[in-house]
Amino acid sequence: MTSRWCVLLFSAWMLCPSTASAAERPAVTQHDIVPLMMLRCTACHGPRKQESKLDLRTCGSMLRGGKSGPAIVPGKPAESLVLKKIHAGKIPLRLKVVTASVKPMEPREIALLTKWIELGAPKNNSPSPVNRIEWNVFKIFLSH
Ligand code: HEC
Q1: Cβ of 95: how many Cβ atoms within 10 Å?
Q2: Does residue 21 surpass a pLDDT of 70?
Q3: Predicted TM-score (pTM) of this structure
Q4: 55 alpha carbon to ligand 1 midpoint, in Å?
Q5: Average pLDDT value for residue range 120-139
Q6: DSSP character for 16?
Q7: HEC states along 69-114?
Q8: Could you tell me the distance, in angstroms and rounded to a whole number, from the CA of residue 23 to the centre of ligand 1?
Protein backbone atom coordinates (compact mmCIF):
# COMPACT_ATOMS: atom_id res chain seq x y z
CA MET A 1 0.00 0.00 0.00
CA THR A 2 2.73 2.43 0.97
CA SER A 3 4.64 1.86 -2.24
CA ARG A 4 1.47 2.39 -4.26
CA TRP A 5 1.08 5.79 -2.63
CA CYS A 6 4.69 6.61 -3.48
CA VAL A 7 4.09 5.73 -7.12
CA LEU A 8 0.95 7.82 -7.07
CA LEU A 9 2.65 10.86 -5.61
CA PHE A 10 5.55 10.47 -7.97
CA SER A 11 3.28 10.31 -11.01
CA ALA A 12 1.42 13.38 -9.82
CA TRP A 13 4.74 15.17 -9.65
CA MET A 14 5.77 13.93 -13.10
CA LEU A 15 2.49 15.06 -14.60
CA CYS A 16 2.93 18.57 -13.33
CA PRO A 17 2.65 20.61 -16.52
CA SER A 18 3.87 23.88 -15.06
CA THR A 19 6.10 24.87 -17.99
CA ALA A 20 3.96 23.35 -20.74
CA SER A 21 0.84 25.26 -19.76
CA ALA A 22 2.53 28.60 -19.18
CA ALA A 23 2.31 29.47 -22.87
CA GLU A 24 -1.41 28.72 -23.14
CA ARG A 25 -2.63 31.00 -20.43
CA PRO A 26 -2.01 34.55 -19.22
CA ALA A 27 0.90 34.94 -16.79
CA VAL A 28 -1.46 35.51 -13.89
CA THR A 29 -5.07 34.33 -13.69
CA GLN A 30 -7.70 34.04 -11.01
CA HIS A 31 -6.24 30.62 -10.23
CA ASP A 32 -3.25 32.43 -8.75
CA ILE A 33 -5.24 35.16 -7.08
CA VAL A 34 -8.18 33.38 -5.47
CA PRO A 35 -5.93 31.17 -3.30
CA LEU A 36 -4.14 34.34 -2.16
CA MET A 37 -7.41 35.90 -1.15
CA MET A 38 -8.35 32.69 0.65
CA LEU A 39 -5.12 32.82 2.58
CA ARG A 40 -5.06 36.51 3.47
CA CYS A 41 -8.51 37.99 3.16
CA THR A 42 -11.48 35.65 3.28
CA ALA A 43 -11.37 35.19 7.04
CA CYS A 44 -13.12 38.57 7.04
CA HIS A 45 -14.37 38.79 3.44
CA GLY A 46 -15.63 35.27 2.81
CA PRO A 47 -18.16 32.68 3.84
CA ARG A 48 -18.48 33.59 7.51
CA LYS A 49 -17.96 37.34 7.56
CA GLN A 50 -18.22 39.94 4.83
CA GLU A 51 -16.82 43.13 6.31
CA SER A 52 -18.14 46.20 4.43
CA LYS A 53 -20.30 43.71 2.48
CA LEU A 54 -17.19 42.67 0.59
CA ASP A 55 -16.68 39.07 -0.55
CA LEU A 56 -13.25 38.33 -2.01
CA ARG A 57 -13.80 34.69 -2.95
CA THR A 58 -14.40 35.01 -6.71
CA CYS A 59 -13.67 37.33 -9.63
CA GLY A 60 -17.35 38.18 -9.82
CA SER A 61 -17.65 39.12 -6.20
CA MET A 62 -14.47 41.23 -6.39
CA LEU A 63 -15.87 43.09 -9.39
CA ARG A 64 -19.16 43.60 -7.56
CA GLY A 65 -17.24 44.86 -4.54
CA GLY A 66 -18.64 46.08 -1.24
CA LYS A 67 -19.95 49.22 0.42
CA SER A 68 -17.55 51.51 -1.46
CA GLY A 69 -18.00 49.92 -4.90
CA PRO A 70 -15.94 47.47 -6.97
CA ALA A 71 -12.90 46.03 -5.20
CA ILE A 72 -10.95 45.68 -8.45
CA VAL A 73 -10.92 47.74 -11.64
CA PRO A 74 -9.48 45.53 -14.41
CA GLY A 75 -6.52 47.22 -16.09
CA LYS A 76 -6.30 49.92 -13.43
CA PRO A 77 -4.36 48.86 -10.34
CA ALA A 78 -4.20 52.45 -9.05
CA GLU A 79 -7.99 52.65 -8.99
CA SER A 80 -8.53 49.24 -7.44
CA LEU A 81 -9.79 49.45 -3.90
CA VAL A 82 -8.05 46.26 -2.76
CA LEU A 83 -4.65 47.70 -3.66
CA LYS A 84 -5.50 51.14 -2.29
CA LYS A 85 -6.38 49.54 1.02
CA ILE A 86 -3.32 47.30 1.04
CA HIS A 87 -1.00 50.20 0.23
CA ALA A 88 -2.65 52.36 2.84
CA GLY A 89 -1.43 49.73 5.29
CA LYS A 90 -4.90 49.42 6.73
CA ILE A 91 -5.45 45.82 5.74
CA PRO A 92 -6.03 43.83 7.66
CA LEU A 93 -6.76 45.90 10.71
CA ARG A 94 -4.07 45.17 13.26
CA LEU A 95 -6.25 44.23 16.18
CA LYS A 96 -8.55 42.05 14.11
CA VAL A 97 -5.60 40.24 12.56
CA VAL A 98 -4.72 38.79 15.91
CA THR A 99 -8.22 37.46 16.48
CA ALA A 100 -8.59 36.11 12.95
CA SER A 101 -4.93 34.93 12.88
CA VAL A 102 -4.35 36.11 9.31
CA LYS A 103 -1.08 37.59 8.15
CA PRO A 104 -0.89 40.63 5.86
CA MET A 105 0.03 40.07 2.23
CA GLU A 106 3.72 39.76 1.43
CA PRO A 107 5.29 42.11 -1.16
CA ARG A 108 5.53 39.21 -3.64
CA GLU A 109 1.81 38.55 -3.27
CA ILE A 110 0.93 42.22 -3.64
CA ALA A 111 3.04 42.29 -6.84
CA LEU A 112 1.12 39.29 -8.19
CA LEU A 113 -2.23 40.89 -7.41
CA THR A 114 -1.12 44.15 -9.05
CA LYS A 115 0.03 42.27 -12.16
CA TRP A 116 -3.29 40.43 -12.38
CA ILE A 117 -5.28 43.66 -12.23
CA GLU A 118 -2.89 45.29 -14.73
CA LEU A 119 -3.51 42.44 -17.19
CA GLY A 120 -7.24 43.11 -16.90
CA ALA A 121 -7.94 40.46 -14.24
CA PRO A 122 -7.88 37.55 -16.73
CA LYS A 123 -9.90 34.47 -15.98
CA ASN A 124 -8.80 31.07 -17.04
CA ASN A 125 -11.89 29.01 -17.51
CA SER A 126 -10.18 25.86 -18.66
CA PRO A 127 -9.56 23.46 -15.80
CA SER A 128 -6.51 24.51 -13.87
CA PRO A 129 -3.43 22.28 -14.25
CA VAL A 130 -3.83 21.37 -10.61
CA ASN A 131 -7.36 20.09 -11.18
CA ARG A 132 -6.14 18.08 -14.12
CA ILE A 133 -3.43 16.46 -12.00
CA GLU A 134 -5.89 15.66 -9.27
CA TRP A 135 -8.20 14.08 -11.81
CA ASN A 136 -5.36 11.98 -13.26
CA VAL A 137 -4.30 10.84 -9.83
CA PHE A 138 -7.89 10.02 -8.99
CA LYS A 139 -8.20 7.90 -12.14
CA ILE A 140 -4.99 6.02 -11.33
CA PHE A 141 -6.29 5.47 -7.83
CA LEU A 142 -9.62 4.12 -9.09
CA SER A 143 -7.94 1.72 -11.46
CA HIS A 144 -6.16 -0.09 -8.62
C1 HEC B 1 -9.14 40.59 10.17
C2 HEC B 1 -10.23 40.98 9.30
C3 HEC B 1 -9.90 41.46 7.91
C4 HEC B 1 -9.04 40.86 7.01
C5 HEC B 1 -8.20 39.63 7.18
C6 HEC B 1 -9.14 41.67 5.81
N7 HEC B 1 -10.04 42.69 5.97
FE8 HEC B 1 -10.67 43.99 4.56
N9 HEC B 1 -11.86 44.91 5.91
C10 HEC B 1 -12.01 44.52 7.23
C11 HEC B 1 -12.91 45.46 7.90
C12 HEC B 1 -13.31 45.41 9.38
C13 HEC B 1 -13.31 46.40 6.92
C14 HEC B 1 -14.24 47.61 7.11
C15 HEC B 1 -13.50 48.75 7.74
C16 HEC B 1 -12.59 49.42 6.77
O17 HEC B 1 -13.01 49.75 5.65
O18 HEC B 1 -11.41 49.64 7.13
C19 HEC B 1 -12.63 46.01 5.68
C20 HEC B 1 -12.78 46.68 4.48
C21 HEC B 1 -12.12 46.35 3.32
C22 HEC B 1 -12.30 47.03 2.04
C23 HEC B 1 -13.25 48.20 1.77
C24 HEC B 1 -14.56 47.63 1.25
C25 HEC B 1 -15.59 48.70 0.95
O26 HEC B 1 -16.34 48.51 -0.04
O27 HEC B 1 -15.66 49.69 1.68
C28 HEC B 1 -11.48 46.42 1.15
C29 HEC B 1 -11.30 46.76 -0.32
C30 HEC B 1 -10.80 45.36 1.85
N31 HEC B 1 -11.22 45.33 3.16
C32 HEC B 1 -9.89 44.51 1.26
C33 HEC B 1 -9.24 43.50 1.94
C34 HEC B 1 -8.19 42.67 1.33
C35 HEC B 1 -7.70 42.77 -0.10
C36 HEC B 1 -7.78 41.81 2.31
C37 HEC B 1 -6.69 40.77 2.21
C38 HEC B 1 -5.38 41.24 1.87
C39 HEC B 1 -8.54 42.10 3.50
N40 HEC B 1 -9.40 43.14 3.24
C41 HEC B 1 -8.41 41.41 4.69
C42 HEC B 1 -11.44 43.45 7.83
C43 HEC B 1 -10.51 42.60 7.26
Answers
A1: 8
A2: no
A3: 0.74
A4: 9
A5: 64
A6: -
A7: ECCCCCCCHHHCHHHHHHHCCCCCCHHHHHHHCCCCCCHHHHHHHH
A8: 34
Ligand 1: which of 36, 57, 73, 91 to mutate, most ligand atoms within 8 Å of CB? Answer: 91
Residues forming a β-bridge with 56: none
pLDDT 10s digits, 108-126:
999 999 999 999 999 876 5
74 Cβ closer than 6 Å to some ligand 1 atom: no
As a whole number of angstroms, the distance between CA 12 and CA 135 comes to: 10
> Measured between alpha carbons, how far is 113 from 132 in angstroms, rounded to an integer?
24
Kindly give, in sequence order, each residue whose CB lies less than 8 Å from that of residue 70, ignoring residues fewer than 6 positions away: 62, 63, 64, 80, 81
Cα 20 to Cα 16, 54, 94, 113, distances in angstroms: 9, 36, 41, 23
Q: Is 31 left (phi over 0), alpha (psi -120 to 50) or beta?
A: alpha
Confidence (pLDDT) at 20: 46
> Residue 119 Cα, ligand 1 centroid: separation in angstroms?
23
Pocket residue to mutate for ligand 1, from 34, 39, 40, 45, most atoms within 8 A of Cβ: 45
